[in-house]
Design brief:
Layout (H helix, E strand, L loop, with lengths): L3 H22 L3 H34 L6 E4 L5 E6 L2 E6 L1
Antiparallel strand pairs: 1-2, 2-3
């Protein structure tokens, strides 16, 4: 995991906190709430992106994207379904 994502989240948190305090003290509570909500959404987008990268890495490591491979026989009307090492033959 890269350390820069922690700095990004921290910087977003500091900016949101500063803007929230400024807007709250000037009496703009609704805008302060929207700034806070926008900061949470940005951080959640970063986390979802990291989770996507993690799942793609796990998928690549365990080679799970080949869990169901269908090979069509062009000379006959047969379909071979391959599920890891099990081969099932279907006639139509």
């Amino acid at each position: 995991m890269d350390i820069d994502i922690i700095f990004k989240v921290g910087a977003i948190g500091i900016l949101v906190a500063v803007f929230n305090q400024i807007l709250t003290r000037t009496g703009r509570d609704e805008q302060a709430m929207f700034i806070t909500l926008a900061g949470v959404i940005v951080v959640m987008a970063l986390i979802v992106n990291m989770m996507n990268d993690l799942f793609m890495e796990v998928k690549t490591i365990f080679n799970l994207y080949w869990w169901k491979r269908i090979a069509y026989d062009t000379y006959k009307d047969n379909i071979y379904c391959c599920n890891y090492h099990d081969i099932k033959h279907y006639n139509f």
